[in-house]
């Protein structure tokens, strides 16, 4: 429920988790749900639609939101409210047809979304609304669903309003899939809602994209390069859609929403012209800026902490948990300072049932009200049976975090167990939290956090796991090491290496790897370059380097010597030892693209 005035509760559509991601209702055949010939000046109906729109008397401050119940739509709600507009949720197909302006924030996988649109009658109403050239903004999947079909778990038929098939990025082009991060767009024709972007980065997170070609050229308003040029936005008349997430693109994204909601508005503060030209390296606050390392202290308060090699207690007589501030306040400050992403890693999450972890849910809800960059949350996301015998799937647990404002879910220990089982049986059960969440929400919504510990070797043949020659020999002069994975906050070692775990979780559906290192944690001597290189070379999904940053040079080192897509730091930002902008300015000076 939304507590704010002017916002109703989201409609109770069928839950996304109840749908198969390979819905037979939309596979095969050549006809999409709506094959409409659309022209903003002269509309041509391909068939007579049963539902007709009534004259709208909607308030100018109201925007209609089509939220079909999957993923994080709270952030978009908050952005709309931040801009001074109220929200009316779609409850019936007639609500679409009566809308004065409509936003469709598609989140998750293509097939479940189409299944919801079909079963609720929303799809046909949506086609009719768009056919009449009425104000529409689709976001991410909300753009993809306008095309004829998608290859995601398909073929799966789309709405068929725009010619083209949505296909997966080709990793053989040397790009990592999913496409996650801040990238530049090239505006190809006047679009109105993109007028304030200039050469600034916007935030993308997706594995599938639509490609421009002769039959859809008149729709394309901008493209983005990631291996190939794909469609970043479309515009035809009053119909707009963007592949990126404006609600997660900071001030630039808010300008896109403002231009759609109020086309005649002028920004009180003009955005500075940027120099964006390609995908930027992300630096995360406790994912560039991480509020990561969130836990309860001995008084039960949720605080941000930071340890040395995972020890988060002060070395005092009281031995209390190190307190570096309140999570919501720090998140807001990091956002203002230029954080690319913010992560909340609840390092005591494995001790309690996640759905009872109300403080973390409150943190997400409040942080997302004023933080318009991606939010990741992790800690204790797994299947669970409570004391009363009620079973909760990891999908239900993740859904609660998504509804509270999370954009991505980070899985730790549970992913290790799933990988061990997969490597043992060579069979994907489909029951692990990793598999369930990625199947419904897409692999771009799932991060696997790896917590390895360095184990030195005299000879690589001494273990069955992948090892590497280390830059700095061990205490006994050992030239090699393997990286043993741990669970439960680094407390328990497991019989699996970081290399083997990374390869396995990629196959099971992970979209990103958060690569920590217990040996480097809190030391401030730099990232474990040997480890980051080993893992980033082994997988085709993005790898976030974490643990050890103590100076701006450590960030340029990890980006120049490895294939890391992002670098995360916590303590140096929590303790204000290094400003975020200092890191970005240093990277720019080193010729590394970043978002400014």
From TrEMBL:
A Gene Ontology BP annotation from the UniProt entry? L-histidine biosynthetic process
**Start and end residues of each Glutamine amidotransferase domain:** 65-259
In which residues is substrate bound? Answer: 380, 516
Which residues does UniProt mark as catalytic? 140 (for gatase activity), 245, 247 (for gatase activity), 293, 451
Q: Name one GO cellular component term.
A: chloroplast
Q: Which UniProt keywords apply?
A: Amino-acid biosynthesis, Chloroplast, Glutamine amidotransferase, Histidine biosynthesis, Hydrolase, Lyase, Multifunctional enzyme, Plastid
Q: A Gene Ontology MF term for this entry? A: lyase activity
Kindly report, in one word, the top-level EC class recorded for this enzyme.
hydrolase
Q: In which pathway does it act?
A: Amino-acid biosynthesis; L-histidine biosynthesis; L-histidine from 5-phospho-alpha-D-ribose 1-diphosphate: step 5/9
Q: Where in the cell is it found?
A: Plastid, Chloroplast
PANTHER family under this entry? IMIDAZOLE GLYCEROL PHOSPHATE SYNTHASE HISHF, IMIDAZOLE GLYCEROL PHOSPHATE SYNTHASE SUBUNIT HISF/H IGP SYNTHASE SUBUNIT HISF/H
The family assignment reads:
In the C-terminal section; belongs to the HisA/HisF family. Belongs to the HisA/HisF family.
- Record function comment: IGPS catalyzes the conversion of PRFAR and glutamine to IGP, AICAR and glutamate. The glutaminase domain produces the ammonia necessary for the cyclase domain to produce IGP and AICAR from PRFAR. The ammonia is channeled to the active site of the cyclase domain.
Per its record, how is this protein called by name?
Imidazole glycerol phosphate synthase hisHF
Species name for this entry? Sesamum angolense
